[in-house]
Amino acid sequence: MDAAKNKTRAPAKPFTHREAMLTTFGLGFLRPAPGTWGSLPPLPIAALLVFIGSGSMAYHTAMVLILFVFSAACVAFGPYAATRFRRPDLPVEAKANADAPEIVADETAGQALALMGWPLLIAPQHPHSLWLMLAGIALSFFAFRAFDILKPWPCNLLEKLPGAQGGVGVLADDLMAGIYASASIALLAVVLT
User: Fold this and answer.
1) What is the pLDDT of residue 44?
2) Contact, 39 vs 123, CB < 8 A?
3) Pure H helices in the chain
4) What is the CA angle 64-33-72, rounded to 5?
5) CA 53 to chain centre
6) DSSP code for 153
7) What pLDDT is stored for residue 175 in this prediction?
8) Which of 42, 127, 131, 177 lies in disulfide reach of 148, CB 3.0 to 4.6 Å?
């Protein structure tokens, strides 16, 4: 492992409720690709709800709760995160607004948003609805990660919003990526069904 790279990483301790929420229960400390790790938690919840046939209301309620909880964590703990996860490799003026790789609550929220587009459009009576729903969940993961990494307009502008120290900019670009992913998957569902 590259020692120089490790110097820019925040230590895992202390690990309090704020770190738990900001790092999605520690997933933000995993390497490589902490953003990918942070995007994973909504997927098994969505798949389980689809598999047990919980219905659209339960599915969407769960995704909205995940979206709300992790969005609130970004905004509420943003000022704390700006100092706790400060990156020593950045100039002083940029440190406060940096989206530290350990903070993945924004990816968790964005992925939950991305998962909302597909199930509304698959009729439960469709002969392959279970497999279509599970395929949509997998596709929403890849679509969200692509939009989150590529940051098409206005994602690239949203991450620079004033108040990023408060978590707004850190969160906004991921929510926009979630909207893009959800819309793309919904469009695909309309074409396929």
Assistant:
1) 94
2) no
3) 3-6, 17-22, 34-39, 42-51, 56-76, 78-84, 92-95, 105-114, 129-150, 155-158, 168-192
4) 30
5) 24
6) T
7) 92
8) 177
Q: How far is 176 from 158, CA to CA, in rounded Å?
A: 8
One-letter identity of residue 143: A
- DSSP class of residue 25? T
Question: Letter for the amino acid at 27?
Answer: L
CB 112 within 8 A of CB 144: no
List, for residues 136-154, the tens digit of each pLDDT value.
889 999 999 999 988 888 7
How many C-beta neighbours within 10 Å does residue 94 have? Answer: 10
Alpha carbons within 13 A on the beta-carbon side of 124: 8
Distance, CA of 44 to CA of 143 (rounded, Å):
17
Tell me the per-residue pLDDT of 22-46, one tens digit each, with 9 for 90 and over.
999 999 989 899 999 999 999 999 9
For residue 172, give the nearest of 129, 131, 125, 113 by alpha carbon: 113
Tokens of 6: 């490790």
Nearest to 109 by CA among 18, 183, 35: 35
Q: Read off the DSSP letter of residue 86.
A: -
